[in-house]
TrEMBL record:
Keywords: Isomerase, RNA-binding. This is Pseudouridine synthase. One of its GO terms (biological process) is pseudouridine synthesis. Belongs to the pseudouridine synthase RsuA family. Residues 84-215 form the Pseudouridine synthase RsuA/RluA-like domain. The lineage of its organism: Bacteria, Pseudomonadati, Pseudomonadota, Betaproteobacteria, Neisseriales.
Amino acid sequence: MTAPQAGAPAGTGRHARMRAMELYRFLQQQGFGGRKACRELVDYGLVELDGVVASDWRMAVTPATIRTLRVDGEMWPVLALPCYLMLHKPAGYETSHQPQHHLSVFRLLPWQFANLGIAAVGRLDVDTTGLLLFSTDGQFVHSLSSPRKVIPKCYQVTTRHVITPQLLQQLRDGVLLHDESAPLAATLVEQLDEHRFNMSITQGKYHQVKRMVAAAGNRVEQLHRIAMGALSLGELAEGQWRLLDAAELALLGYPAPA
């Protein structure tokens, strides 16, 4: 796990973070469990705020002023809710809370996020790697997942056979897939070498990139999402996650809540 900068949370809830609340309620908001569990964490001396062990779960805290939070010996970034994050998804994980044949991608995130109702923005196939977004903001998840939201998604495609100019041109012009009434075209096609090219699409059809490449006469061996809109995966290591900030949300055309 890549821990974000403590005390510099992404996003939102600025006014809520300036309000004082009881410590156990703050721990609940950070995903550490229900009321009883959060009170016990304090009673057992497992909560440190700015390096000082908290002794009273009733104490008033202001989230915006907390620089470091350690619970049961582990540092935890102070989250401003709702929160938004990116993950570099490895192969072999299903984008589901209830996976059928592989591990859930949610296992790559800290367990606290499950208590916050985090959801993935769309999904990536089990064998597809790269950029996957998550949020506790249902409106954000719905907006970016909606077919009406036109956000280019860029993939690095590795093919079985050597790439030809004809293949690339077919993808630019559009290919007709089974069960589709009109051809689907890539918005960007850029060759990298004999077996790799970048390809952007704005739709989200089932196995779309793989099916388009197959329809154009080749086969996808590896598929890796490198960007959504102007937001790129960057240097985030495989299997790691990090929070998004307001500027990165703007790259997706989504204003950070005040």
